[in-house]
Amino acid sequence: MSENDMHYLQLLSKSFPTIADAATEVINLEAIMNLPKGTEHFLADLHGENEAFEHVLKNASGNIKRKVNEIFGNSIRELEKKELCTLIYYPEQKLELIKAVEEDLDDWYRITIHQLVKVCRDVSSKYTRSKVRKSLPAEFSYIIEELLHERSDDQDKAAYVAVIVDTIISTGRADDFICALCNVIQRLAIDQLHILGDIYDRGPGAHLIMDTLRQYHSWDIQWGNHDILWMGAFAGNDACICNVLRLSLRYANLATLEDGYGINLVPLATFALDTYGDDPCQEFMPHLLKDAELDEKTLLLTAKMHKAITIIQFKKEAEIFHRHPEWMMDDRCLLEAIDTARDVCCMGGKDYEMKSCFFPTGTKELTAEEEELMKKLHHSFRVSEKLRKHIRTILSHGCMYNICNQNLLYHASVPLNEDGTLKDVEIMGQKYQGRQLMEYIGQLVRAAFENDTEPELKAYDKDYFLYLWCGKDSPLFDKSKMATFERYFLTDKDTYKEEKGAYFRLRNNAEVCDRILDAFDVTGDNRHIINGHVPVHVTKGENPIKANGRLMVIDGGFSEAYHSETGIAGYTLIYHSRGFQLVQHEPFTSTKDAIRRGTDIKSTTQIVEMSSHRMLVADTDKGNELRTQIADLKKLLHAYRHGIIKEKRN
Questions:
Q1: CA-CA distances (angstroms) from residue 129 to 28, 35, 366, 636?
Q2: Of the candidates 318, 229, 284, 272, which has an alpha carbon nearest to the alpha carbon of residue 48?
Q3: Of 234, 267, 246, 260, nearest to 376 (Cα)?
Q4: What are the residues whose beta carbons fall under 8 Å from the beta carbon of 480, sequence distance 6 or more?
Q5: Does the predicted TM-score (pTM) go above 0.90?
Q6: What's phi and psi for 489, nearest 5 deg?
Q7: pLDDT at 605
Q8: Helix (H, G, I), strand (E, B) or coil at 85
Q9: Rounded Cα–Cα distance for residues 580 and 58 (Å)
Q10: How confident is the model at residue 321, as a pLDDT?
């Protein structure tokens, strides 16, 4: 036995000091290996749609409804099953409605508690008692455990179970108990949640999504381009701050900024009115989403603020692009290419007609007033305590990619050459590709928030957030350009085109996908790439399953801004012990509607891939970890039994 092995076993013996302790743990781990695989839930491109996100999270993309149908079949009516599902999703709110109309409340309590216990028993069946126990609320832990493991059809225990339920009701604890049971069902329906990027922008509730995730039991995120933009804003990249503000103003969505993070927009409003008071700002009128109503005065103010921050954005981006000529993005400094005397922009040696040419602050450096405004906005982002907590949460739970159970997860792309080989991307004089590129970018992102990073490197790291947002070879963008300027200012719509990188043209090729999977060391017969970023246009016949099942795209347009474009309201993916199910969602009405009418998101489930056998924990990454632990414990048992290490009995 090597010295390192001996040292490790000595450390392990502190946790398992006797043969009995080590043997018991081996038995426990061997048993866990033979439990069914936990259910994984994949979501992408939430874009601030907190109500739809909350509902999909609560109903586990229809997983809970499926279980209710399996458990009760035809034994209860469809209406009763729908009511039971709504109660599980929204227990507190649904209880208030039921109590207002139910004549025999005690009887309803008895029936409902027994139904909920059946559902809870089903969703908990694939976990150890220990894991279930840890998910139970402390005040009802003992009672729920008793009900889960005792059956009312057992004649010897029928009276025992009945008395427990009756006592819950008679002591006035029924409401709290039902809420606790519903929350446990939600908790156990999904073992692991994967967010494939883009929590932020467009919708009104990104901060509310983050509040929910901070309380969620087990989740990870692969950073998206919009997440990176907000991370860059908090890190102090002024160009990112401007982009965040511009996107919020473009959709007249200021709730996340003002209500969520306390960003003070009064200085921007004041500056915009002073500077663009006589400008109609037609190109900057916001895109209003459903139920959004703004009076004419507010619309005009929003448009002026929109233009003011956009002009500052182009100037701030130009500063960074000039600072990094190696990025080869000087051609995106188009504000500087405007000839105001002729109302044209010279781009690529050609003059393009401008929609408007009113630039009272000039087209090059920031004015003193713009500089002062940026200082105030910069300060507001940097001192937001809630934003700090949310960005730290994204950092601690996130990365550029993840490999989980033979699935490679990332938000957008892996940069490729035209022939499908991995593309070299240069960062600070070094070239990276594939996995090494993703890992190095992850290091740069984290270094931007560390106090011990050298000032010069930290300045580069902070600037690099902008490249990740709009750089041609960024794995989070991967297009020829971001045509923001062209859409706002040029009349020629041909200039609006953004050519996608080779990845998006080649991702339907199974050989290319296999090459990417090989580069990330993803092995196995049923390996996949799962990503989002580009909405799947269902109305045009596009299929989210690509490359003979190797790749799945689950951005179907969660954001309301995409619904008319995609024809649906997002995809989610469920990976349970029997295989993959892709769930296609129609637009969510509202939480209020879901509670009052029991309306669920209308969803269509497509079976993507079913396993020939029910997958067990032994078939997962967790199973590999457990096998290693079991092998180590068996070495410890050998050491105990041969006197190499002495047992430590009390």
A1: 11, 12, 63, 26
A2: 229
A3: 267
A4: 472, 498, 499, 500, 501
A5: yes
A6: -120, -20
A7: 62
A8: helix
A9: 19
A10: 97
